[in-house]
Design goal:
- With 614 residues, the protein is mostly helical.
- The chain has 3 domains: 1-208 and 586-614, Serine Threonine Protein Phosphatase 5, Tetratricopeptide repeat (Alpha Horseshoe), CATH 1.25.40; 214-295 and 472-549, Serine Threonine Protein Phosphatase 5, Tetratricopeptide repeat; 342-459, no CATH class.
- It has helices at 6-16, 44-56, 65-72, 82-86, 91-100, 108-130, 139-164, 191-212, 226-241, 250-262, 265-268, 276-279, 355-361, 370-374, 390-401, 417-425, 476-489, 493-508, 515-525, 534-545, 551-557, 566-574, 576-581, 595-600, and strands at residues 78-80, 290-294, 351-353, 375-376, 378-380, 409-412, 431-432, 451-452, 471-475.
- The strands form 4 sheets. It has a 3-stranded mixed sheet. The chain has a two-stranded antiparallel sheet with strand order 1-3. A two-stranded antiparallel ribbon has the order 2-9.
- Strand 6 (409-412), helix 16 (417-425) and strand 7 (431-432) form a beta-alpha-beta unit.
- Helix 7 (139-164) packs antiparallel against helix 8 and helix 9 packs antiparallel against helix 10 (250-262).
- The radius of gyration is 24 Å and the shape is globular.
Amino acid sequence: MKTIYKKLIILFTTLLSLFIYQSCSEVLDEEPKTYFTTTYFETPQGIRDAVNTVYAYMRFIYAPNGPLALFHQGTDEWTYGEQPATSTSGDNLQHRECGEYSLSAGNGAIGSIWNFSFPMINMCNAILEYVDGIPDLTDQEKSVIKGEASFFRALYYLNLVIQYGAVPLDLGSGELKMNTKPFWGFNRLPLDQLLEKNYQAMIDDLIFATQNLPEKKNENNYKVTQAAAYHLLAKVYMFRYYTAAKKADDAQNAYSAAMEVINNQEKYGVKLLDNFADVFRQGNDYNTEILYAVDRIPGDNAMNMMNNPTGIGAYENQANNDFTPNYQQAIGNVSLIDGRPLAYQRPLRKIAPTKWMLLTAFADKVNDTRYHSTFRTLYRTASVNEPGTSAYDEYVAKLADLGMVVGDTAWYMPDTQAEADAINARGVKYFCVGPDDWYTNQNRTYIMHPALIKFADSLRVTFNDGSGRPYPVCRLAETYLLAAEAAMQLGNNDEAADLINVMKRRAAYKPGLTQDEIDARYANIAVTGTDINLDFILDERTREMAGEWVRWSDLAIRKYPDGKSCLIERARAFNPDVAAANNLKEHHLVRPIPQGQIDAVDDPERAKYQNPGY
């Protein structure tokens, strides 16, 4: 929400300290200067503030540096970049450990989702407990508020379950009840029964949300709606299908939930965009394809809750920066780009693409526009300094000495090595790096690789800032992919192909082409039912959703028909760093419970609460 104030977050952090699920080792005995009680929830303003806080805290889950490591590192798509490869300081170690599966319960990234989710689950419990007793709200207002709390409780739980496995529903006062006092237990056993309860609780919440949230999507904010709830419901059913908690009708229910949105797009105010690139174009963040995103505000660091916008900590949105290579790299003592221009993002180089993703998943870079709409392959000479300054003039003079001007090509990463070889044979002035020399941890000559640009933000306050753009969580294109996967699991491969071909036809579109040219491109990438299997579904999810917060869970949750893990099989096969480390085992399909949580449990046998293998 564009009007969630920082002071509101501080207020509710203070209030939550009275009753959140405890994760520290001791409680300080001190006299509070300002005292809040749960009676605030019995007022219209209090309950609305609680809802706003639940929205706002999603910013701590989606796109900060730690969760970026958890949701991307060590997959077939992504590995750790040059910074974690050459330094083990601070967050670099977190990325390295996630990328090589050497992570421990003390890894800082591990605690990021855990620590911010349980307070908000308890907040949702409070909202659901108190809202019906507020006389100044209409029945419709109460229904929407309960729908929002139910949606977010399910989403917070989903992120916990896909990362850590079964997690407590009882935070100290009973299952799905608000807890108002410090609690030193850990209601996590037995795991198999709790996992079933986790999934059923999420499904119950999301079914309720589909019945109580507004139908229509808003045009200028991401208040959740029925379409987002149906989308998330389809995902939860689909995920449960692959777990020990599986129910016989999970695939059918996933299909039905997804198709409800697909078949009623006008009702819900949603629609696929014609051009894939437009989905992520800055300035078009509130488009009809994105069902729900975590709102942020470009250029407003205070409202985005970024105390240190240039920092790399627990709060800043680094989705624009973590995937960026070192375009400042000097070759032969020559650096063609002056500083860190806003358009090119901060080159944090925490996360790097695998060759499998760039060259195999995106093998067709001609007929399918998604590769060039997903990655930057061209950088032009540019300066962070303003024209008319002495620093800018010095840069222009340096370029002139090289026979170049501002706006000339600086770095180019062609689609093929043959093209790169032909360009370099001509003796060009810019740096041309072909696929053979794109950065990997086995070849560090150039710290350059195609850079993810879906979340690029050119409206930041300074060149080192995190992003202020909304971060997409539920997207209609994924709804199609979930429906296709469910159809496949139901034995309807032809229908699955039809649903995927909706994405393929959109991928063939490129502005400026004639309809005949688009049709010809589509014919080259369209699929039939014989093409469809789980590997193809996962490959298509890469082409459509690379970098969109889903890959680790995509692979960790799913299993092949023979029971083998998609994560283990694909990461070992397609990620050289995972293969070289040779650490990835079955127990890595969930993360360790944060050590601070284990240590806080008042049970001398507390080790039994940790996930096996850690």
